[in-house]
Amino acid sequence: MYKLLIRPILFWFDPEEVHYFSFSFIKFISKIPFVPAILKSIYEVKDSRLEREVFGLKFKNPVGLAAGFDKDAKCYQELFNFGFGFIEIGTLTPKPQDGNPKKRLFRLKSNSAIINRMGFNNGGVDAAVNRLKKNKGVLIGGNIGKNKLTPNEDATADYLICFDTLFDYVDYFVVNVSSPNTPNLRELQEKEPLTNLLQDLQNANSKKQIPKPILLKIAPDLTDEQLLDIIDIVNETKIGGVIATNTTISREGLQSENSPQVLKEAGGLSGKPLTKRSTEVIRFLSEKSNKAFPIIGVGGIHSAEDAIEKLEAGASLVQLYTGFIYEGPKLVSDINKAILRY
């Protein structure tokens, strides 16, 4: 029903406006008595064999919603009803910011892909916390970043503000230094600044009564040498694991479509063109580290088979974003059912 009827209608309209409309619609119908229970009955796969314990947390199933979809924690409770095992909110920054000028979100329908240059648009970490205080049993990841106007030499302070503010309201943290849409942010992926940033966060974490897992989200565009550096950094700082991968700045292999100009738009590319590369990164990290740390696999998961490939490559959990938009919520249950058959 989604792909035949709902998606064609939604895809007639601007993708960012559709995103906000979809949130409003999901929140509206979720207030109708019995609708949340009906959604769960359709999409949730209940089976103890799906449960996973990763970096000290218990997940009811290994399929999560990636950061960027619910940046401001406005719809996590309602989205959880579609059968996800966990929801990652963010990327959040200390201060509210508008992000990059519109238009900044583009569909590449013939490639089942999206280009975005949103630029960490969010209402700030304090506003998100107010919504997270109402959480009723959703396992939440908090994806954190720096404000656009904060220079890289001061970035650690921004990450620490987000870490401290969110600490009591999320189950794990994700350090985002890999978005291509904040100027110079990816420079923080270099070995020395990244090690220092993660170590400072770990030092703050160690002072908490019960520390929480800190993960690093990396770009798919890193070289093998840089990926080996990532392994060294994870081992040195003893963070909880890695999320592989964020969006790519590569445009390799894209098909032309009705508006070739769209292919030239700046921003991060997600969707099917990222499937192979993200799986390669997962496999490289898993094999070269001898499975020393957990990996959450994300990037180009549009089918149950795509998810299984990432799990076989070494991922402990997977996350959806663009695949959820193109394939619909049935993708979540399809993956969980395939895992049970696997």
Task: Name the features.
TIM Barrel, 342 residues, 8-stranded parallel beta barrel, 3-stranded antiparallel sheet, 38% helix, 16% strand, globular
Kindly describe this structure.
The chain is α/β, with parallel strands linked by helices and 342 residues long. It has one domain: TIM Barrel (Alpha-Beta Barrel), CATH 3.20.20. Helices cover 38% and strands 16% of the residues. The chain has helices at 2-10, 15-30, 35-43, 76-80, 125-132, 155-166, 191-206, 224-237, 275-288, 304-313, 322-327, 330-341, and strands at 52-54, 57-59, 63-65, 86-92, 105-108, 113-116, 140-144, 172-176, 214-218, 241-244, 268-271, 295-298, 317-320. The strands form 3 sheets. The protein has an 8-stranded parallel β-barrel with strand order 3-4-7-8-9-10-12-13, surrounded by 5 helices. It starts with a helix and ends with a helix. The model has no long low-confidence stretch (mean pLDDT 96).
CATH-level-2 architecture:
Alpha-Beta Barrel
Q: Which superfamily, in CATH terms, is the homologous superfamily?
A: Aldolase class I
Biggest sheet descriptor? 8 strands, parallel, barrel
What is the approximate shape?
A: globular
Mean pLDDT: 96
Specify Rg, calculated over alpha carbons.
19 Å
Low-confidence stretches: none
Number of domains: 1
Count of alpha/pi helices = 12
So what's the CATH class?
A: Alpha Beta
As for the CATH topology, it is TIM Barrel
Query: Strand order across the biggest sheet?
Result: 3-4-7-8-9-10-12-13
Percent strand: 15-25%
Number of beta strands? 13
Structural class given helices, strands, pairing? alpha/beta
Fraction of residues in H or I helices: 25-40%
